[in-house]
Amino acid sequence: MEKFALLFRGGRSEELPELKGSHMQKWFEWVNKLKSDGKYLSGEPLLPGGKQISGTGKIVTDGPFTESKDMIGGFFIVQVANYAEAIKICDDYPDFNFGGTVEIRKVPTM
Model confidence over 8-35: pLDDT tens digits? Predict the structure, then answer.
């Protein structure tokens, strides 16, 4: 089994308040499914904004740093056999209906 990071971008469902409760339920169901299958290790939502440090002078600037469709809204760390399985477990990603995307990155063993 290998670890993968799932990075969630876009999918601005919070702009539709009437869907917020039912949409969050879809997220909880997906997380619970991954947990019961032994694939979910950890994860958190991320708030918009933040700080970015750059350059040799370590200049700190306020975010957001990208267009909202490109902003990372959260992440999961999952444990699955390979990229194919990591892709498959994203079938239930709730934000596809709102234009969201999932970036899958392998976490190396260190």
Answer: 988 765 556 666 778 889 999 999 999 9
Element (H, E) at 91: none
Q: Measure the CA–CA gap between 59 and 74, rounded to whole angstroms.
A: 25
Written as six digits, the tokens of 40 are: 């979910």
Contact by Cβ (8 Å): 93, 27: no
Q: For residue 82, give the 3-state DSSP assignment.
A: coil
What pLDDT does residue 28 have? Answer: 93
Amino acid at residue number 60: V
Model confidence pTM above 0.85:
no
> What is the β-pairing status of strands 59-62 and 72-80?
unpaired
Q: Closest Cα to residue 73, out of 52, 103, 31? A: 103
C-alpha triplet 32, 36, 40: angle, nearest 5°: 70
**Torsion angle of the four alpha carbons 76, 68, 71, 43, in this order, in degrees rounded to the nearest 10:** -20
